[in-house]
Amino acid sequence: MTEHLGKGMRASWAFLAVFLIGPAVPVLGGETSSPEATVRAAYAAYGSGDPAIVQRISTPGAPAIPTLSKAITRRCWFVQSVVIDAREITGDHATVTATALVTKPGKDGSPERNRTEGTTVQLHRSGGRWLIDRWAPVEEPFIDRLIAAAEPQRRLLLASNEAFLSPEAGRLLAMRAWEATNHNRATAESLNALASDLAGRIGDPGAQALVLGIQAIFRRDDGASEEALRLCRESLALAQRSGDPDVLARALTNMGRALWNRDAFSTEAFALFAQVSALEHEVDDQTIICRALINLGNLYTNRADYFSARATYERALQIARSEGDRVGITACENNLADTYDLEGEHDLQSLHLRAALATSASSYYEPILWAQLADSYTQAGRLADAAKTLKRATRIAKVVGGDMNWANVYDGFGHLYMKEHKYGKAEKAFLMSDSLYARHSESDQFDSGAEAALKNGDSTTALSLARSAAEAARHKSSYRFVEEQVMVGRALRAQSDKDGAVAALSEAVTESEAYRDRFAGEVRPQTDLFEHYTDAYAELSDLLIELNRPADALRISEMQKGRALLEIARNGRHDISKSMSVEEKDEERRLAEVLSALNRRLADAESEAEATGIRPELANAQLEYEQFEARLFARHPQLRTMRGSPSIPDTAAMAASLPPGAAYIEYSLAPDSLDVFVLSRGADGSPRLIAKRRLIDREQLRTLAGRYQEKLSRREGSYRADGRALFNIVIAPILAGLSGIHHLSIIPADALWRIPFESLVDRQGRFLIERFSVSYAPSIAVRLAGHELKPSNNPILTCGDPVIESGTRKQLQAFYRGMSLGRLPDAADEATVVARMYGTGSKRLIGTDATKAEVKAIASNYGILHFATHAILDDRNPMYSRLLLAADPSSGEDGMLQSWEIMNLDLNASLVVLSACDTARGRVGAGEGVVGMAWAFFVAGAHSTIASQWAVASLATRDLMVDFHAALRNDQHHSATDALRSSKLRLMKRPAYRHPFYWAPFVLISTDNE
Question: Which of 600, 615, 638 is the last residue of a domain?
Fold first, then answer.
């Protein structure tokens, strides 16, 4: 029987008095005697916020009412009233339709939102109780019939069911099409065509926005990026008219994805995803927020900012778990794995890939995850495990099919074969994967197989593959275009077409320069992004040496190095605060205070459980601060345009800057060769340039450099063999050109930044420092561009042995395993003695006086800064490395001076001495050197920095530093480089300190031309 209980909310609210939620709700401990009583009880769960109510009145294992369950969990919508529109009972089964008025309270003073929800509920009777089997929008059965019907019946259904032609129906059908885009293009296109027809009949801007968004996805996948963006803009305009935050968030995300597809580093896409993230409390479907955060994390990953990427993925993962969103969970775990892959942390990569597989069992995309897990094994050298895992991926792919599944499997085999030096098999595997990717316009994102073909001796195929891939990526993926254009150049070199190779590599460099110009003014993004492009410069420089064009080769080598610092040195560091509004300054202050407060909370946490709860908040706060900075550049484009790309000086200008007896030694590292330039002045003052190239595998050199530094830092006695091997590679080939030279200004490349060159051992068993004084520089151009320092009346500020709060010490030691953060009495003595040497105007800060707040307030007043403190270098995220100072509760400062804060200081220091552990470390940024504290002090305005490359011995360091300042102070014409060398030589004469462990870690990195 069918019993009509009302006309429905869309027509009349005459029956509200009868069916308001309140006393009419049954007691759930007894029987629910009617289907409508069960429905009302379910709606009552909104008010109670208790999802357990839903479970008690739902059929075990049934889909029940997931939408309602999520709303209860979030407590965002509240039911004001319910009308039962109709019920139909057939035996022990019933269908009830109901309409509810629900309200979401306003946030931060915004008006509340009201809406009506029509629902169809299917129930069955069991043991005298009515239990819910399914809860769905009232339009859903109609949409199901519409989708299942043939074309003539569809027209009839549309004509005879005008009551269901509502905005809800249009949006529901469009969402069916949207979901299908992840699985079947043909189904998605068919559903979207039907949704477009329905949206047109209804005239609802929300449904129309969704339809256009899906069309944009199709165009994006077809490679028609401009058409996709046009559709996204139209969709966004309609979404803004709709007033529906969910539709708006989806449109913003879709447009951001289209922009990202065109440019993997798009700042505009970054801003859009951040805008969606800010809608978190407005949006009902939190999976949209999850997807926006995933895309935001992908942009951070592309920028090599893995710290921010992981914080974003973790936040998205929390949402996905709370929503039961298996697809979102899998995507987050997979993307977390990607960040660890890019950092070479393959054990952690495998851990997250297995977590992704645990949530995607029986998923259509499961073979992709197995292929990625295999690739992590390949990169870790676990080739047998990789082969076994790829076989499993192959078995699953045979069952589920799918081009993208097979493409990833073949790609995995390609990388495995490359590691096994089976280049013929690798080439075939990459060809298979690339042909499958190409069907989905994804071939610009994956290995073309050109490198495998080249290593297999097939330069013709390599050239064809690389050219095809480069053209596919042109105007679409700047990085991929450059990568493949480099392969074009290498293939042409293999065919002895040197002129063609120069042209191809020059085009890659031109594209890299154009890409860099887009980020003028943004210091941090430049250091992260540009390292993806440096192979183009290294390869072209190497070819020009081969063509006996050393001056041109040096200029190209200089173009890849130290460019962010060069820009600042040439154009000055723009004070962003002068361009900021009062509101923006207040926001920056608020964000900085939040970061400081969270750091203090973490330090004060009394348990690991409490600390675990704080760390995600801290990561989110750091993410919010970086998003604020990104918005600043979007709002104030003058911060970019006021800075042009500085030119590189010619060889004569470089040589003219050299003092007598000095030489620049610059290195450039390509995949298969190491180039070294020696620039000095002849007796008549004319430039003398020598360029040498040595064939060497880049990975082998990285391994040797890493092993050598590790042996030195562990005080191992077997370091000499590696020190001699490195000497033979990096110094011996140019030794004859160093006649009459006593000072070397070294511009390292790649892993050579990890090597203290002073400790290298020559063929007579002597250390290099016994023959030369050595300093380091980001580039020759940076040294030439150094700005003048204003005279300072205050000679030196020293900080020693600051008191670290016990909570801070405990948390840092727990987080950074094996770290000791005890008191440093030798450091206190060091700071005191050094300050006394410089006399009037000097200042020392010891113990509780050495606060972060005080250092930030007065550092700009001193010509030399000396820090004898603990330091923590975070290789994974150098901008959050920190010097540990004393906390100051009255100022709210947390005592941790982080690299990003150092960059914001306005210094006038000729020298910064970081007499602490590991202060020269950081992520090796190709083209920028070691991006760590030394780099941050340069950005802040310092000219030279002395920093350590490993954990140093306290007493030996005190003696070295006191002796260094004595030498520097007693001879006003003594350069810091020579003062440091003489101090090291005196220290190593003491038998106990002969090992380089004691004196080699401290290196002088300078933007000055001493």
Answer: 638
Tell me, rounded to whole angstroms, the distance of Cα 882 from its chain centroid. 19
Q: At 102, phi and psi to the nearest 5?
A: -120, 155
Let me know whether 985 and 840 are in one domain: yes
Cβ(346)–Cβ(386) below 8 Å: no
Helix axes 326-342, 346-359, angle to 10 degrees: 170
> What pLDDT shows up at residue 722?
95
Taking residue 322's Cβ as centre, other Cβ atoms within 10 Å add up to 13
Listing DSSP states for 923-973 in one string gives EEETTTEEEEHHHHHHHHT-SEEEE-SSPPPHHHHHHHHHHHHHHHHH-TT
Is 709:950 a contact under the CB 8 Å cutoff? Answer: yes
| Cα–Cα distance for residue pair 659/740, rounded to 1 Å | 12
Provide the CATH number for the domain around residue 870.
3.40.50.1460
Same domain, 177 and 243: yes
Residues 944 and 961 in one domain: yes
> What total of structural domains would you count in the chain?
5
Q: How confident is the model at residue 631, as a pLDDT?
A: 62
pLDDT beyond 60 at 361 = no
pLDDT in tens, 198-241: 888 888 899 899 999 999 988 887 778 889 999 999 999 999 99
190 CB-contact burial (10 Å; exposed 0-12 / middle 13-18 / buried 19+) = middle
Which residue's structure tokens are 């395993």?
817
- Domain stop point among 782, 810, 834: 782
Nearest one of 325, 269, 276 to 302, comparing CA atoms: 269
Distances in Å between the Cα of 675 and the Cα atoms of 701, 782, 933 are: 13, 20, 28
CB 71 within 8 A of CB 278: no
DSSP H helices in 110-184: 140-148, 151-160, 167-180
Domain membership of residue 902 (yes or no) is yes
pLDDT above 70 coverage of the chain, percent: 76
Asked if 195 and 173 touch (Cβ cutoff 8 Å), the reply is: yes
Q: Beta partners for 663?
A: 744
- Does 814 lie in the same domain as 954? yes
Residues 864 and 887 in one domain: yes
**For residue 812, what pLDDT is reported?**
54
Q: If residue 90 lies in a helix (H) or strand (E), which one and from where to where? A: strand 78-90
CATH number at residue 224: 1.25.40
Q: How far apart are CA 416 and CA 456, in angstroms?
A: 15
In a domain, 938, yes or no: yes
Q: What is the pLDDT of residue 810?
A: 57
Calpha distance 987→915 (Å, rounded): 16
DSSP assignment of 714-773 = TT-TTHHHHHHHHHHHHTGGGGGGGTT--EEEEE--GGGGG--GGG-B-TTS-BGGGT-E
Burial 629-668 (b: 16+ CB within 10 A, else e): bbbbbeebeebbeebebbebbebeebbebbeeebbbbbbb
By residue range, what is the domain housing residue 620?
Answer: 577-638
Helix, strand, coil shares of the chain, percent, nearest 5, are 60, 15, 25
Q: Check residue 995 and give left, alpha or beta (phi > 0: left; psi -120 to 50: alpha).
A: beta
